[in-house]
């Protein structure tokens, strides 16, 4: 099982890094939901405070713009710019952060440059609004993340779930550490090894990124529906778990998955003309709290932070220059795609 992350808040820990995982660190195929809890907890322990440092829940409002994205002068994130596009009513804030070395069992992991985007969208599926509803965000990224990216990203030429684990109905409660405010419960987990193949264009070979991908939602307990006056007060043990409007998607490189029998897009075999890249990301999508007591819902905040290495002969400085624009482009592409999908359903 993966080593639990460091409590040092200047690092992201040793798990969600470009070095990622080896096949030997993946759960056995016959793992029970309960046996997956330590891995799910380790991923959450690293991912939740890291992504919250972009726009802390305790202080982030519904406004977009660089001032709303960063946590102030003490934030580890550096503001780069804000981009706008005709397909999105919201601006996209771009930030960067250098993750410091963290000591592993055998060696030190190198510094990594993480790039992040944050955008805040009106919650609506109305035509012409250049945004999306919560249901559309949730279905696209919680339930169908690989399929959605394959559908709206022109450069993606293949996506598949190579291995999947049944997480059952397990829930994981995070108890807040001294340096964060994350004291929440997560559930509705999915866990899979996902292969994504990107076409770079000649003379470069395609890049395939095999990752262990976890999705989940923030949960809360509510009493069951009251059917009679005698049921007005239920025991807490009778309360049921319900999703809150907040989802998390975590992707971790599986560097040697090409040798796995389940591999296809990243298979290490003659004729599979691809370069295996490294990719790690943390994505949080949530409805912001309403800004007044009028009963209306909040806007949707979409944050994604990533580090990547396409490998091969492509210089890292060229990759670094391209990443901010690429991740901002994903917002425009998704909103344009979801609008077309809406029209198809009429």
UniProtKB/TrEMBL annotation:
Q: Which domain of life is it from?
A: Eukaryota
Pfam family of this protein, just one? DUF3074
Q: What is this protein called?
A: DUF3074 domain-containing protein
- Give start and end of each DUF3074 domain: 114-338
**Residue segments, region Disordered:** 54-75
